């Protein structure tokens, strides 16, 4: 029956300092980024993607990646990571103490060309200079496969194309693949079908969900993932973020909304919702605008009474 197969706990992978801030119209000062990261860690988030070692030409908002990585707070049991799109990015990452990196690729050929200016096959070839060398250097590598639920340019995407990509990423050395609904078009039945396809080939720890809430279905899709056993969910405080090469795409599912729902379902996250809400207020101040998260706007209603 529904909710009979819920996990006792899940892991939340916080992406706002990277996936959120990279989409802002203005560049956030380094000190403010660090303030946000500190607030997220203090709320109990233990996996935080702090920045991206991408070319400042393409993502000027994250041009201070080296400085951010060098000034990350030392918080027990918190793992910081950074996106590394190519060998140059890895070279920069290796000069820091970042213990984990991530690579990203799209299941859509058109989106991949617009996002990284390369074909899918060309991107996978380039990863040969990133993933294996990173693993040999002692870093863990996580992979993103985006636009699995749909593409803003091609429409429906055959998830088997994403499965082939994920298979190659794991063979190269990625410990986990984050499956992305980049434009927020996913619906629960579609999500069930996609997850079953990937779960037929990968173990639960190897899979994560990266849902955007453009059309208000992110949490519904998360519930499907929970029922099927998925235990890692990407989220962004306040719903901060989007994708510069996915027109109209809203931010990731808001971390507060996700934690609020999970708390109410008895699924442990290790995150203090009150402190997380405060971190969301820090994010709002950092970017200087309102954020779309529901709990971020409405506030926290205690679930203990």
Describe the structure in your own words.
There is one protein chain. Helix 2 (30-42) packs antiparallel against helix 12 and helix 9 packs parallel to helix 10 (218-228). An eight-stranded parallel beta sheet has the order 7-6-5-4-3-2-1-8. The protein is built from 13 helices and eight strands. It has helices at residues 16-20, 30-42, 65-70, 87-93, 109-116, 120-127, 131-136, 159-172, 188-199, 218-228, 255-264, 273-287, 294-298, and strands spanning 11-14, 47-52, 79-83, 100-106, 140-146, 176-181, 207-211, 232-235. The chain has 305 residues and is α/β, with parallel strands linked by helices. Helix 8 links the parallel strand 5 and strand 6 (176-181). It is globular and about 50 Å long.
Query: Given the C-alpha coordinates, what overall shape results?
Result: globular
N-to-C SSE string, H for helix and E for strand:
EHHEHEHEHHHEHEHEHEHHH
- Let me know the largest β-sheet: 8 strands, parallel
**Number of contiguous helices:** 13
Mean pLDDT: 94
Question: What is the alpha-carbon Rg in Å?
Answer: 18 Å
Rounded to the nearest angstrom, the distance between the terminal CA atoms is 27 Å
- Backbone structural class: alpha/beta
As a percent range, the share of helical residues equals 25-40%
């Amino acid at each position: 029956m529904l909710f009979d197969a819920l996990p006792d706990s899940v892991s939340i992978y916080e992406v706002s300092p990277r996936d959120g801030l990279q989409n802002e119209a203005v560049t956030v000062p380094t000190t403010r980024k660090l303030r946000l990261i500190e607030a997220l860690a203090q709320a109990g988030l233990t996996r935080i993607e702090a920045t991206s070692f991408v070319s400042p030409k393409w993502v000027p908002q994250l041009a201070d990646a080296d400085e951010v990585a060098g000034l990350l707070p030392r918080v027990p049991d918190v793992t910081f990571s950074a996106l590394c799109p190519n060998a140059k990015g890895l070279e920069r990452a290796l000069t820091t103490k970042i213990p984990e990196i991530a690579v990203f690729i799209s299941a859509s050929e058109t989106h991949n060309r617009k996002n990284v200016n390369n074909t899918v096959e060309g991107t996978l070839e380039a990863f040969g200079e990133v993933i294996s060398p990173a693993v040999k250097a002692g870093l863990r590598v996580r992979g993103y496969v985006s636009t699995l639920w749909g593409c803003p340019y091609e429409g429906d995407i055959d998830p088997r194309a994403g499965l082939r990509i994920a298979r190659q990423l794991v063979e190269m050395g990625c410990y986990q693949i984050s499956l992305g609904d980049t434009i927020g078009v996913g619906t629960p039945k579609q999500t069930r079908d996609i997850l079953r396809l990937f779960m037929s080939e990968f173990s639960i720890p190897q899979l994560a969900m990266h849902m955007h809430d453009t059309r208000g279905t992110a949490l519904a899709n998360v519930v499907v993932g929970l029922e099927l056993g998925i235990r890692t969910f990407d989220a962004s405080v306040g719903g901060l973020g989007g994708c510069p090469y996915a027109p109209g795409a809203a931010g990731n599912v808001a971390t507060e909304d996700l934690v609020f729902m999970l708390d109410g379902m008895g699924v442990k996250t290790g995150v203090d919702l009150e402190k997380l809400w405060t971190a969301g207020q820090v994010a709002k101040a950092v970017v200087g605008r309102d954020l779309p998260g529901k709990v971020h706007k409405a506030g926290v209603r205690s679930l203990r009474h």
